[in-house]
Amino acid sequence: MTKLWVMFFTSLLLVSAMNFYAVIREPDMIEIDEIRNFPRETVKIEGILTGYVRDPYGEGADRIDLQVQEIDGHSVAKVRWNIDRNNEVPPIGTVVTVEGEVSEWNGRIWLQSNGYGAIIAQDGFVDFSETKLVEVGRDPQSFSNSSLQIDGWISEALAPDVTYHSLYLMDNHVYGGADHLLYIQIEGRVIDWVEAGSHVRVSGWLQFDERSYRWRLLVQASEVEVLSQGVPSSVNWEADPYSLTFDIGKMVFATGTVVNEGGEWLLRGPSPNDSMCFLPSEDDLDQSNLSGTSGVWAGRLAWAADEAEVCLDRGYDLMSERVTGEFGDDTTELSDVASDPFSYVGGNYTFEGWVTDPISPDYDKGYVGDGADYYERQTKLRLLLVGEHSEYIEANQPIRFNATVLWSDADGRVVLEARSWTLGDSPDPVVLNWGDGYNSWRWDLGKMVQLSGEAVTDEDGIDWISRSGSDEKVCLLGDGAESIEQLSIGEPVDWVGRLSMEEFGMESTARFCIDVR
After folding, report:
1. For the chain, which terminal residue's Cβ has fewer other Cβ atoms within 10 angstroms, N or C?
2. How confident is the model at residue 320 (pLDDT cuts 50, 70, 90)?
3. pLDDT at res. 508
4. Are 379 and 369 in contact (CB under 8 A)?
5. In 3-state terms, what secondary structure has residue 36?
6. How far is Cα 433 from Cα 246, in angstroms, rounded to an integer?
7. Structure pTM?
8. Which structural domain range is residue 98 located in?
C-alpha cells in the first residue's frame, strides 16, 4: 500500500512539473513559411515589418493587423495584434519578433498575438529603396502622377498570351489576408506564366481614376520583376462550387479520381456530389488506364464556355513561351527599343514587323508588332507613316521600314516615324462564323473578312447578307448588283469585304456591315 502512495505522489509531481514547464517555457522560434505546420500552437517568428492597419474593419476594435516578411526570403505572415489601437507601432522596415498562437479559419492562417510583449522591435532596420504599399495607402496624393517601384503579391495569374491584365497588388500572398490592395493595370505580354500569389516588384505610374473613383498603378509588362513564384493552392471540395470561379486562371491541386462517363472526363472528389470537369493533357490520354486513376492532379482552372462550368485543365504548359517573328540580320528588334527607348531616341534604324490593325489610306498612324498575330506578339510600338499610301494596310501584314525613333512628350511613349516602307503579302481574310455575336466580331472591325450567306434586298432597298434558314443577317455595302448575282448563282456565296459598324435609324442602335466594294 505504501508503494502505491509513493507512485501516486510521484505521478502527481511529474504532472505538475510538466504543466509548470508548459506555462513557463519559451515558445519555439520557427521560420515564417513553417507556420502552417504548427496549428493552435504558440510560436515565435522574426521578420521585417512591411505594413500595418489599425482597426481594419472600422468597428472601434482594439486591434492592429500587421504584415511581417522573411528577412532573407519572400514568405509573409499576417499578425492580428489585440492591443490598444492607438499603441505605437515600430516603423516600417523594422526587424520585429512576434509571439502568437497559430490560428486558421477557412484556409486562412495568421498569428493571434495579445498584449504589449507580443511584438518586440529588434535593433535591425531595413531601408527600403522602393515604396511600400502602406506608404502609398496613407497618403496617395503625395505620390500622384509619379513613377513608383513597389513590391507585393499579385491577386491573379498573368498569362503569356494576354496583353492586358487588371488585378491587385497586395501585401499578403492570400487575398483574404491582405491589409492593403492597390489596383494595377498591366499592359503588354509577359514571357511566362506568373502565378497568382507570386511576389513581384513592379514599376509604374500612379494615377487617380476619375471614372471608378480609385487609385491605380499603370504598369508595362516588361516592368514586372518576379521575385518568387506563387505556390498553387488546393481545391477545397467542401467549399461552395461558385467560389471556384474566383480562381479561374490559377494553378491548383485537386485530389480525386478521374473517370470517363459517356465520353466526358470528370474528376470525382471524396463525396458522391463532388465533381469537376476534367480536361486531360496529351500525356494523360496516352495512359491506357487513365479512367479510374486516383491521385493529386495539378492543373489550371479554366472556364469551359461549351459546358458553362469550371474545369481543371491539364493541358497548360507552365513555362509556355510565345516565339516572336524572325528578323533579318540588318534590322533592329522592336523589343530592344521598348526595353531601352532613350538609347535609340533620335536615331534612324531599319525595322521589320507586322502591322497590328488596319491603316486606311486617309490615316497615317498605327501600330507595328514583333509577331505575325495576337498570340505571337510580345512588343507593339506606335507607327507614324510620313507619306501617302493609296490602299489599306491590312492587320497582320508584314512591313519592313526605315524609321526615326522619337519620344512623344504629350503621349509619354515611343513613336517610330517611317518615311519609306515595303509591305509583304496581305493575310487571308478573317472567316466570320454566324452566331459568334458582337463580342467576337468586334475584334475584327476594319479588317478584311469572309462570310458565307445569301444576298437579299428588303422592301426598303437595303442589301443584306442573310444566313440560310434563319433570321440572322448583316448589311451588305456594294454596288447594288449583288442580289442579282446571287440569284444567278442560286446558292450561298462566300462574301469577302471589310467589316464595319454603322448607326442607323433615330435610335441609338448600330449594325455590322460588310463592304465588298
Report:
1. N
2. very low
3. 52
4. yes
5. helix
6. 30
7. 0.50
8. 28-125
